[in-house]
Amino acid sequence: MFHRPAIAFTKLQAEALGLPQIYIETSGIKDKELEDLRNALEIALRKYEVDAIVTGALLSDYQRMNINLIAEELDLRVFSPLWRKDQAEYMLEVVRMGIRFIITSISAYGLEPTFLGRIIEESDVHEIVRRARKYGFNPAFEGGEAETLVLDAPLFRHYRLVVRKGRIVKLGEYTWRYVIEDIGLEEK
Predict the structure, then answer these.
(1) Any idea of the CA torsion for 23, 24, 28, 34, to the nearest 10 degrees?
(2) Could you tell me the pTM of the whole model?
(3) Are 161 and 99 in contact (CB under 8 A)?
(4) Residues 58, 67: contact at Cβ < 8 Å?
(5) CA–CA dist 167, 169 (Å, integer)
(6) Coil, strand, or helix at residue 170?
(7) Rounded to the nearest 10 degrees, how much is the dihedral formed by the CA atoms of 132, 91, 96, 169?
(8) Which of 14, 40, 79, 162 could bridge 186 with an S-S bond, Cβ 3.0-4.6 Å?
(9) pLDDT (tens digit, 9 = 90+) per residue, 1-28?
(10) Contact 121/95 with Cβ under 8 angstroms?
(11) CB of 95 within 8 A of CB of 120?
């Protein structure tokens, strides 16, 4: 249910966004992770008086259903503006809107490690979509085929993330990870 590779760098993203972050560790065990999500949302309710959640859910019924159930129990509204959006079009829109991201892990046949650690451009998205059609994976990585890290976006107020050093590690036949060794914030 939760993003794992490069998760520690979300603290930098929160700073770039100028927003506070609630950081809760989870075992990732099914159902236990939902209790952890509930705990994080309860903290947000108390500390920041939130009244709604915005999700990035595209296709996962499991994610959307569970977030909606917990939110309903906590009397929170849920907005999922990307729900069921065309996956290829979504990826193109992300790049066209000025969101700069890298791929930090790959777990799919047909995705080459050459995509790891570099800023994904529109031409890369076209290639990812082509490969997704050929090899049968989700081009927006909704099935865990890859994980990403946003380095810059229009909502990042004063800073962007800059990866200064990283390396590619092979973990399995079709599993690769971009290990970030040095990352920081840079003024825009």
Answers:
(1) -110
(2) 0.91
(3) no
(4) no
(5) 6
(6) strand
(7) -70
(8) 162
(9) 566 678 889 999 999 999 999 988 887 7
(10) yes
(11) yes
